[in-house]
TrEMBL record, chain A:
A GO term from the CC aspect: plasma membrane
Naturally occurring in which organism (per UniProt): Salipaludibacillus neizhouensis
Subcellular compartments: Cell membrane
Any GO MF annotation of the entry: transmembrane transporter activity
Highest rank taxon of the organism: Bacteria
Name of protein: Sugar ABC transporter permease YjfF
Membrane topology summary: Multi-pass membrane protein
UniProtKB/TrEMBL annotation, chain B:
Tree of life domain: Bacteria
Major subcellular location class: membrane
Entry-linked InterPro entries: ABC_transp_permease
Name of the protein in question: Sugar ABC transporter permease
Classification of source organism: Bacteria, Bacillati, Bacillota, Bacilli, Bacillales
Any one GO molecular function term: transmembrane transporter activity
Subcellular location as annotated: Cell membrane
Transmembrane segments: 6-30, 51-84, 96-116, 128-146, 166-187, 217-236, 248-265, 272-294, 300-317
Amino acid sequence: MNRFKLNDRMIPVMITLMLFAFMYSFGMFRYSNFTSPQVFFNLFIDNSFLIIVAVGMTFVILSGGIDLSVGSVIALTSMVAASLLLAGLSPIIVIPIALLVGPVLGFLMGCCIHFFNLQPFIVTLAGMFFARGLSFLISVETVSINDDFFRFMASTRIPIGNYFISTSVIIAIIVVCVAIFVAHYTKFGRNVYAIGGSEQSALLMGLPVGQTKILVYTVSGFCASLAGLVFTFYMLSGYGLHANGLELEAIAAVVIGGTLLTGGVGYMVGSVIGVLMLGTIQSLIAYEGSLSAWWTKIAIGLLLLLFIGLQRVIVHRNDKKKNTISLKDTEGSDQIAR
Amino acid sequence: MTKSRLFWPLVVLAILLLINLIYDPSFFVIDIRNGHLTGSLINILNRGAPLILISIGMTLVIATKGIDLGVGSVIAMSGAMAAFIVDGNLGDSERLFPLFLAIALAIGLSAATGLWNGMLISRIGIQPIVATLILMVAGRGVAQLITGGQITTIYYEPYSFIGGGYLFMLPFSIYIVAFVLCVALYVTRRTALGLFIESVGGNPLASRLSGISSKNIVLMVYMFSGLCAGIAGLILSSNVASADGNNAGLWYELDAILAVVIGGTSLMGGRFFLMGTVIGALIIQTLTTTIYSVGINAEVILLVKAVVVLIVCLLQSPEFRKKISGLFSSSRKTPKDEGVNHHESL
């Protein structure tokens, strides 16, 4: 196992990590309050749902697809949960039903993408409209939640030393751990990487391409629903406009985390760091005070540009390397080893 | 006749208009009030003007197998830019100079965004979805930067002419759309450019090898899309006499893609139908009007759009057609139908 050797694929993640460390220390240097560990924990508390969504999105992007429906699924999940609770059902029934929303929609979208060979972009776009429309169909107004269990989940503080995290952070961490395991140590994970690398080759190798593709969208849907539930704990309400435009933030986090948008290359950890980076930008801008919120968008845009440019350079270099390998085929073995 | 690409979109449009007629018998009536033609049909054309413009630009982009997600942001930026100019000291309502300056700068800015997208895609080789995503995220930030995060209200009178003015009894925006449409139709159907665009969408490498400057065609198409979005931004901001960096043109990129797809242009590139797109945009606008006039909850329109996108895409998918014709394989009509479909796709 040469996993700790720095290979090409790790470079974007390393750059992301370094940039994150740099930004964070810049914050600590500039604002005295930023040094408190609580600020770091807050990054997780405020972004736990985004971490969960980004994990699902990473699977989709690794497989070479894209899922634009996640923000709407969060809204729909929050709406379903809130309206069922309003109807007097107990959380034990409500939570499983709410968690089913995303996987069902994701499964249907995956089927459309696989069986009818439609573009993921347009199918998930329809899914996005559909989920938001459905949540508005349930109710146009905000539905607030008064359930004891939801309140408990919202207000519980888990102490770490003098500081605290919330229950949603625990859920997010579990999701990330499971995702890392699934992506790197299971057949499904390998298949996802293989399909993203080259769907044609994966098909010729006899991998279950269709099944994996459908499953990828189902997983993303599940992550979105779980994120929706966490988001509901956070907001204690259901509303059709919740998480508007979140899909863009999730995609941005995944890209900044070093996952190649063409699929096949990337790490779950990268996406988590990507989310933390977005969170840091937001808190830096909040701490600065004089800067307004829209600078966040510009900063995210610039970061996207930086990392997409970086990806381009790496892909270009790999292509060149491949060419040299094929040219010097006779002395190929030591070239490949390098 | 049914073989025409325009047939089904036109049928849908006609059905929508008929539904309106049932709910409101005076739907087709066009009056003359204060020397202006008024009526629901004129309204649909007027309200639909920005969408038609953007969809025209989007059609050419999609014809090259690309996509432009940044148009909504460009709408916001262009409106913000114009508002910034006419809202300042220049905004004294006597002179027309600020109006032209605002239009020039707003359109210049939108062309520049198109150039930016086009450079990223044609020169650096980034996928269109990703490259335009950058502008989609950052563009709204820039728009808010220009307006200072506030919704700028425009008090400058001449500016309202772009979106709300009348010329020869018709809203001025209709003339803008007609002009852009005619230019686009002329350039793509009367010169070789349309063929070049289709060939780049079909196979960029083959077109480059056959002597077409693929990169410049792609660059130009994105600039045109940016330009269309910029003009649409002017119309929209002039209509409401304000510029809102956050919400102006929200979801327009999706509506435009929807209009293009309904119009029969495939997302796979290589073919485009400008008139189909215009009808597609009119269908979306009529749908919105219908939903309001029938009294259905306005938000439900998202649901309807989702179903429409899905059906249109399924109908375009060869796999779906094969499966459906497989279901009815016993029926003797099928080979003929498939023959027609095959013919259409050629």
